[in-house]
Specification:
heterotrimer, A alpha+beta (376), B alpha/beta (225), C mainly alpha (96), B: 225 residues, alpha/beta, Rossmann fold, six-stranded mixed beta sheet, four-stranded antiparallel beta sheet, globular, C: 96 residues, mainly alpha, 2 domains
Chain lengths: 376, 225, 96
């Protein structure tokens, strides 16, 4: 009880003391909060994106079979579907047709794709929301593509892809097989690649091995590899953003160190007074501990909460330019809120602990001065 | 409580070439409920003596008794404890912490003792009222006049209700009128039964009728009193 | 009100909001699950393999399908296509 009362008195004192230099201390708090905000935003964003992408890609095909020609990706002839032969565990096989289209009018890259299930007429397309935004078109409007041989084909937009799926569908243009083959010049009957469904994931590597044996000019891409790749990509991205942030963090560290450690003559005098009127070294140290703790904990909470709002309720809009780069099409997406406890704990430790230490250490020397120093 | 010193020595920088004996064999007794003035030129050792009596520092040799207890043999922790409960300090430049309010400055010595907040505030307000400062309680101390600052310093020295008050050159920064006012306040303290110890070379202080006894120091030795 | 009480109040509010944010992550709104579900159905239908996050060039769009000789495969720090090039590692493949 007495301990709590004493800490409350010490907090009273340090708050009054901090409020004397409002501009300086609120400035420090602001910069500190901003640093935590940036770090927490990166952490929350990459973690949530990883989860979201990983979650959705669970539904992507187990094996994709690409043919290579002189080591480069080439069309895969339709008879490869037969050549694969019977493979235990493969429950479905299908040729995919897709490709890219550069739209010079808006300088955007589209992904053209054949979607048989949508039963599109040869003059109809379904487009992703980002394309509709970039071109300013909607259902019922027409999109014109110049084909491989220079002829312009107009397609009516039957509908837009669900905007909730934008993270995966922003730049898609779905069309019928005939429209795709004619406009893109894929007339030979080949496919872009072949998709295999496998029911038992444990058989995957065995199947992949057999595929490379039977069809030596192909390369199977497994879903596991894709997932692993994306996991690595976002970890890497987080890492690189941290590197970019490192400059800002270093600047802050220097600033904070200077602020926290550089004891002004006035502060030294005040500690002398406190010692003379009956404060012990321990009291002074505890008081300084509270200074560091109050500033850093406040900055941590505020920064984290702002980051949470930024990432999950403002669509991480500050990161958009980084992810977008020079791309024209960018999906508008909202991430499902997820927080990794360990990450938050790490962030807490690395933002709060060093600052508290940096405030206490330099005071040590000043606080062990003799209490009669003010009388000399 | 009687304070008695027996053959007290204090050497600064002992064992080094610049060693300097500030107090050289002082033996004296200070009676309770009296105002005692240590008089002497600057460098005579009066502040050093005062800081040893007030448990701010220790003698190099010799003994200091506070009542029955011998201060000079107590460990640091106990010394601080005795200092907090027994002594109140008034310093030369008052040493108030600027930026804080009058009330906060007065409360400062009580913080490490952590008394109940309501009671503490009540006694602080009573003190401020006695010294005519209640209307200034929330003003920052740097806005105060010299006389007000001096009274705040007295209130701060009294907040833990100490038995003995120690004032080191309290009138050094005051004009004559304020110095007289200060001695008036010292009289009040004596009337409520406090022991007061003042160092000064200001005639307003040591010639004041409030002072019961003057001890003169010269080069670290008692020459009179 | 004492300053320490005000600070305590601030911390009660902040930690309350913090707990609220944690609670916010555990509550999965039906529309959120719906959204993921719909996306998964579409991904399964079309056999999609990559998010449409990097549409700036054809070799960045489908990272998992990229050609071994496209820019991104050359060097993990391929800086020629900023920012994607500086942010991406080549796909990890067990087989060439």
């Amino acid at each position: 009880m007495e301990w709590i009362r004493r800490q409350r008195y010490l907090i009273d004192f340090i708050l009054s003391s901090l409020l004397r230099r409002k501009g300086k201390n609120f400035g420090l708090l602001l910069v500190y909060t901003l640093v935590v905000f940036m770090l927490a935003s990166v952490m929350l964003f990459t973690h949530a994106l990883k989860r979201e992408v990983g979650n959705v890609l669970q539904a992507s095909p187990e094996i994709i079979l690409q043919r290579t020609e002189a080591g480069r990706h080439a069309l895969i002839p339709a008879d490869y579907l037969e050549k694969i032969g019977r493979l235990r565990g493969v429950t479905g096989r299908k040729g995919r047709l897709w490709g890219y289209f550069y739209d010079a009018t808006v300088k955007a890259n589209y992904t053209l794709m054949v979607a048989d299930e949508r039963e599109l007429a040869d003059t109809e397309v379904i487009v992703g929301s980002a394309i509709a935004r970039a071109r300013g078109v909607g259902p019922g409007d027409y999109l014109t593509f110049r084909s491989h041989d220079g002829i312009a084909y107009s397609f009516m937009i039957r509908e837009l892809l669900d905007s909730d799926t934008e993270l995966f569908s922003a730049d898609l243009v779905l069309m019928s097989e005939r429209a795709f083959r004619v406009s893109q010049g894929v007339t030979g009957g080949g496919y872009t690649d072949i998709v295999l469904s496998v029911s038992n994931p444990r058989e995957l590597s065995k199947i992949a091995e057999k595929l490379t044996q039977r069809l030596p000019d192909t390369r199977p891409i497994l879903k596991q590899e894709i997932l692993r790749t994306y996991d690595a990509i976002f970890s890497w991205r987080q890492g690189i953003l941290f590197v970019l942030l490192a400059g800002a963090i270093m600047a802050f560290v220097i600033f904070a160190w200077d602020k926290a450690s550089g004891l002004s003559a006035e502060e030294k005098r005040e500690i002398g007074i406190l010692k003379a009127i009956g404060w012990e070294t321990g009291d002074v140290l505890q008081m300084k501990f509270w200074e560091g703790a109050i500033l850093s904990v406040t900055a941590f909470f505020t920064g984290y909460l702002l980051a949470y709002l930024h990432v999950f309720y403002a669509s991480a809009s500050l990161f958009e330019p980084v992810l977008k780069g020079w791309a024209v099409l960018y999906p508008a997406f909202r991430l499902a809120p997820v927080v990794d406890g360990l990450q938050i704990a790490t962030l807490f430790f690395f933002t709060v602990f060093p600052y508290v230490v940096a405030t206490i250490i330099p005071i040590w020397q000043a606080s062990v001065t003799d209490p009669d120093a003010v009388m000399r | 409580m009687r304070i008695s010193l027996q053959d007290v020595h204090k050497v600064f920088n002992q064992g080094r070439p610049n060693a300097y004996p500030a107090i050289r064999g002082v033996t004296l007794t200070i009676e309770p409920n009296q105002v005692t003035c240590l008089k002497g030129a600057s460098g005579s050792g009066k502040s050093t003596l005062l800081s040893m009596i007030g448990c701010l520092s220790r003698p190099t040799s010799g003994r200091i008794h506070l009542g029955e207890r011998m201060l000079s043999s107590l460990p640091e922790r106990f010394l601080t404890d005795i200092r907090r409960h027994t002594f109140g300090f008034i310093f030369q430049q008052f040493n108030l912490i600027s930026g804080l309010t009058v009330l906060e400055n007065v409360l400062l010595p009580a913080y490490p003792l952590a008394p109940d907040f309501k009671q503490l505030k009540k006694s602080a307000n009573a003190l401020l009222e006695r010294f005519g400062l209640q209307h200034k309680a929330q003003s920052p101390v740097q806005w105060l006049s010299g006389g007000e600052a001096q009274r705040v310093a007295i209130c701060r020295a009294l907040i833990n209700d100490p038995q003995i008050l120690i004032a080191d050159e309290p009138t050094a920064n005051l004009d004559t009128r304020l110095s007289h006012a200060f001695m008036g306040q010292i009289r009040q303290l004596r009337e409520i039964g406090k022991t007061v110890l003042i160092t000064s070379h200001d005639p307003v202080v040591f010639e004041s009728p409030v002072v019961d006894r003057v001890i003169e120091l010269c080069d670290g030795q008692v020459v009179e009193g | 009100m004492r300053k320490s009480d005000r600070l305590l109040l601030l911390y009660v509010v902040l930690s309350g909001l913090f707990l609220l944010s944690l609670a916010d992550t555990t509550r999965s709104p039906p529309e959120g699950a719906e959204r993921i579900d719909r996306t998964r159905r579409m991904v399964a239908e079309l056999g999609l393999t990559d998010p449409a996050l990097f549409t700036e060039a054809r070799y960045t769009r489908h990272l998992s399908q990229a050609d071994l000789h496209s820019a991104f495969q050359d060097h993990p720090m391929a800086l020629e296509h900023f920012p994607s090039g500086s942010l991406l590692v080549p796909p990890q493949r067990s087989q060439p």
